[in-house]
């Protein structure tokens, strides 16, 4: 299953409603599972981003739908990266001419 790294920043609304954030994180995790995916890890971080999530999703389309729903709620803005394991990377390198 493809893995994604989701970098998030709180919006003004998300910061204002920070007490609800733990519940929103659990809801997002449940929504991923309902769509056939899984939140592998979730971190609150210091620095350029406020949150980092690692998720396995069955397809880009499922990921897109989830991210559109997350963004439309107005609490976070996201940057999403497709991640490849070291084995996936090694396999790709072996295919080079």
What about the largest sheet?
Answer: 4 strands, antiparallel
String of helices and strands: EHHEEHEH
With strands numbered from the N-terminus, the spatial order across the biggest sheet is 2-3-1-4
How many separate domains make up the residues? 1
Q: Give the uncertain stretches in residue-range form.
A: none
CATH class: Alpha Beta
CATH homologous superfamily classification:
Lrp/AsnC effector binding domain/regulation of amino acid metabolism (RAM) domain
Number of beta strands: 4
What is the CATH architecture descriptor? 2-Layer Sandwich
Provide the residue-averaged pLDDT.
Answer: 95
Number of helices: 4
Envelope shape: elongated
Content-based structural category? alpha+beta
Secondary-structure map:
Layout: E1 3-10, H1 12-16, H2 21-34, E2 38-44, E3 51-56, H3 60-72, E4 76-83, H4 86-94
Structural description of this entry:
With 97 residues, the chain is α+β, with helices and mostly antiparallel strands. The chain has a single domain, classed as Lrp/AsnC effector binding domain/regulation of amino acid metabolism (RAM) domain (Alpha-Beta Plaits). The chain is built from four helices and four strands. The chain has a four-stranded antiparallel β-sheet. The two termini are 26 Å apart. The mean pLDDT is 95.
Compact overview of the structure:
The chain has 97 residues and is an alpha+beta fold. It is built from four helices and four strands.
Q: What structural keywords apply?
A:
elongated, alpha+beta, 30% strand, 4 strands, single chain
